[in-house]
Write a structure and sequence with these properties.
alpha+beta; disordered C terminus; 351 residues; single chain; elongated; Immunoglobulin-like; 20 strands; five-stranded mixed beta sheet
Length: 351
């Protein structure tokens, strides 16, 4: 009897030991599996902008990250698993999504914040549109996947084009042959914050923004932005020399259109002095006008000379020249007076 009970106790001990070993082994394997999967220190997160998305994350180990962007609120049944998502992200001929791709997160990137801009590889990312973004990470050494991440976002509406433009004064006066300068500047989009702030989502100047500056005399300069808040800086774009003054006043028009459809159009008149000789506005040369002398019945031909009643004929061009000289003399007097006033103010301020 005693021997039988002893055998049963020994068997029970072996049985419990097997259970304990199996349990510990299962926990060990489970823990190893969890440790072998990529672990996000932060993210993944999708931030929407009018014509782009930003994917950000931070992972604890070397991994490959796969992402796909679909239109609308995309949630298929059955749900996408990691392997299927990887296929969509990497298949060379799949173009059924606006954007997709993979990221090699290795070396010095590991443990650091990563940002990927999604502009739309196959179709552009549009403003005021709903998108669904799927993301999954795969450990490079074990090939184990993280959980599949899904986020639905809505891009903001397209902002209007916001710029500071113009000439030094609203209506510019230049002489023919002199350079006119059109000024373009980014505004301060947040005046309450110290320093000049130029938020692209408030200026509306995105990559692909087109510029057209029409000087009104048949000359048009063009430019296309290649980055956020990229404005024309080439002197050949915003300067122009008028070689004709046939119209006197030219309308200078700047048209700026961003990729999501907002357009800004401004027009400034510019006065160009130095009228061209023989312009069409002057009209063709006129034949001498017949002017009747007082007391005579027959008209006489006059080419720029007019009869003054009771006196000798007067040359009209000479009179005009005299008037011009008088006007120039007055202008010179005004310049001297202004110069004297400035000198006086300078002396008073120094004393």
């Amino acid at each position: 009897m005693y021997t039988s009970k002893k055998i049963k106790l020994i068997n029970l001990g072996f049985y419990n030991a097997k259970i304990l070993i199996f349990t510990l082994l299962s926990l060990f394997l489970t823990n190893e599996s969890l440790i072998a999967q990529p672990v996000y220190n932060s993210g993944p997160n999708i931030t929407p902008f009018p014509i782009k998305l930003e994917l950000s994350f931070n992972i604890d180990r070397s991994s490959n990250i796969y992402f796909v962007v679909w239109w609308g609120n995309y949630n298929p049944i059955p749900a996408l698993d990691a392997g299927t998502l990887k296929w969509y992200a990497t298949h060379p001929t799949y173009t059924g999504a606006p954007d997709r791709g993979s990221i090699s997160y290795t070396g010095g990137l590991v443990g650091s914040d990563y940002l990927r801009t999604i502009n739309g590889t196959f179709q552009p990312i549009n403003a005021n549109t709903t998108y669904t973004v799927y993301v999954v990470a795969q450990d490079i050494s074990t090939n184990l996947f993280s959980s599949v991440y899904r986020q639905v976002v809505v891009t903001p509406p397209c902002p209007p084009v916001f710029l500071l433009t113009g000439f030094p004064i609203p209506t510019v006066c230049v002489n023919k042959g002199q350079m006119a300068i059109f000024t373009i500047e980014l505004p301060d989009t947040d005046p309450l914050t110290p320093g000049k702030q130029t938020d692209v989502n408030k200026t509306g100047i995105f990559p692909g923004t087109t510029w057209s500056l029409n000087w009104g005399d048949g000359t048009t300069n063009t430019y296309t932005s290649t980055a956020d808040n990229d404005i024309p800086t080439d002197i050949n774009f915003f300067t122009h020399t008028y070689t004709t003054a046939s119209n006197c006043v030219y309308n200078v028009t700047l048209t700026v259109r961003n990729p999501c459809g907002e357009t800004s159009l401004v027009t400034y008149p510019i006065d160009v002095h130095g009228r061209d000789q023989g312009d069409g506005e002057q009209g063709p040369p006129q034949a001498p006008q017949a002017i009747e002398r007082p007391g005579q019945g027959q008209p006489q031909e006059s080419a720029g000379r007019h009869q003054v009643p009771g006196g000798e004929p007067v040359d009209a061009r000479a009179v005009g020249d005299a008037h011009d000289a008088q006007a120039q003399g007055k202008e010179r007097q005004q310049e001297l007076l202004l110069s004297s006033q400035l000198s006086l103010l300078s002396l008073l301020s120094s004393s």
